[in-house]
């Protein structure tokens, strides 16, 4: 069966120059976007129940834009003024750049990893005697906690927001040729919204090993997979599949 319609389980890109736009125009497709999960912030009261006091930390470890937003949102809610001397350890340039929304970049000490927070190992060691706050969601991979423990730095996790399954009930009778997933949470959302989901002719596209694993555990047939050496992006993987199937 040819592919004509695709549903991507993420928010719609803000730019009309996204790879999905090019894919849509080139192959005459309908590509829709719908987040299968969304983020909800915790309250100041819920953070205090974790025995978190922002006053106790000289350094903040930031791995996502959500972490940046919810840290500063809670600072405002809890009437905490972040000291100018606070140091920020950012996972990537994108996160560090986003930090400018809240702080004057050139006046703050901001350390940036090239690809990962682990690139900053030598910098972490310089401040080994100081304390680090690690704002996260309720879902957290173990790699960064393991890295911080290995360095023997004093750090504490603060759950500031949580990942929640979105209500997709309006899609119950809507059919797409391809469903695109980027996280295990997206797969979970599919089955929480539609416990009786049958794949049949629907093609499933997944990005990343953890998403592949979640799809397999849910007994889904994976038709499109990324990243691979040939197709490092999801749009490239979808296009390769379409060029084969839509002949």
Structure commentary:
Helix content is 32%, strand content 23%. The protein has 247 residues and is α/β, with parallel strands linked by helices. The protein has two domains: 5-36 and 168-245, Rossmann fold; 40-163, Rossmann fold (3-Layer(aba) Sandwich), CATH 3.40.50.10090. A six-stranded mixed beta sheet has the order 3-8-7-4-5-6. β4 (59-62), α3 and β5 form a beta-alpha-beta unit.
Q: What would a concise description of this structure say?
A:
The protein has 247 residues and is of the alpha/beta class.
Major sheet: arrangement of strands: 3-8-7-4-5-6
Cα-atom radius of gyration? 21 Å
Low-confidence segments, given as residue ranges, are none
Number of helices: 9
Q: What's the number of domains?
A: 2
Q: Provide mean pLDDT, rounded.
A: 94
